[in-house]
Protein: Membrane magnesium transporter
Amino acid sequence: MARLFGGLLIAISTVLLLLAAHSTYEHFSYLKARNQSSESIRQVPADLVMEIGLAVILFMFGVTLYTPPLKEITWASEMRKRTIDEMNSRPSFAGFNHRGRSIHASS
Structure:
């Protein structure tokens, strides 16, 4: 259910962002048609800024709800999935030629 709601929030925020982009383009086209100064062209109306902010916030909530839960990546959780036969025990590192025979041979 949360995944469906997250997808819906993503779709709504995408539509809001596209609408804000279109409104911004129309606003700048209107200012250019009226030969406004370059300083007033740089300013975006406050309602468009709020609409873009709302779209970004909705998109973040939507993505948070849409993604699956995170998986545990600790060493213990990885070892639960494997058996001892899958792991390489590296028998080449085992040293059987040690001094134990010479120390305990006299006893």
Summary: The CA atoms of residues 7 and 49 lie 23 Å apart.
